Amino acid sequence: MNDTILGLHHITAIAGNAQQNFDFYTKTMGLRLVKKTVNFDDPETYHLYYGDETGSAGTILTFFPWDGIGQGTEGVGMATEIGYAVPQGSLDFWLDRLGQANIKTKDIAERFGEQFLAFKDPDGLSLSLIVPREEDLRKPWETDEIKNNTATKGFHSTTLTLQKIDETAKVLTDIFGYRLLAQEGNRYRFITDAVENASIVDLLETPAGIRGRNAAGTNHHVAFRVKDEAIQMEFREKILSKNLNITPKIDRDYFYSLYFREPGGVLFEIATENPGFTVDEPLNELGTHLMLPHQHEHLREDLHKLLPKLS
Question: Model pTM?
Fold first, then answer.
């Protein structure tokens, strides 16, 4: 099954204050900062990667924190929810923990037979903690306060909000190899059988919905995982054959990327597993150094002064 899309690779979102973002995801949510680098196109802005111990594909949430960017608006043409898998019986723990952090939560609810807890991060990004039907056996990153029996395991799913789902669904089924699993109201659940986790994409059809505006608290793009560059380039040809525009291969240091905008307006990426996050830092030091793309290395001294210190 390695010659197909292997579920979600990472999701990238926009934040405001970098310290607030770092505190929430490493302290409140208990994720590991696996890479502290900069935006390739705007090196005076961080690119922060949070995930499990190694930054495994399917666990990686990344942020561009632009201080002062203002509040974005979730809407059609973007990913509007990120779902994390959590263990059975852990939602009460999270209700209490998020409440102590002054994060407002909705009531525990059920969707497709799975309990979930919905809330927003400090910038307004929509998140949910979901207890999957089948136990998620991935090993989480643990902290002093968040252990294996409560920690997030990585992505469960993401939700795309669209005016019409038909053409986006064709990308998922005809190109990516997903299948329609179930429908509840205007929510359609697609799943790939190629992987056990991070395998679900929900399409939410809202014909009268307002188009979203990217700024703090919104998702920038959704990245899907492939094994390597050879398979990635096969998918590039498939996408071109559907008359969709797609970028050439781009080296992102920790993976190789292709980008295209699917017909509903969501920016998709296809990212490789290789070379991974230990290419420039040992495993035990991931996220502890400022790692710069080679083209920005000459700016290191200036960036150390310009970028906010994360403590």
Answer: 0.97
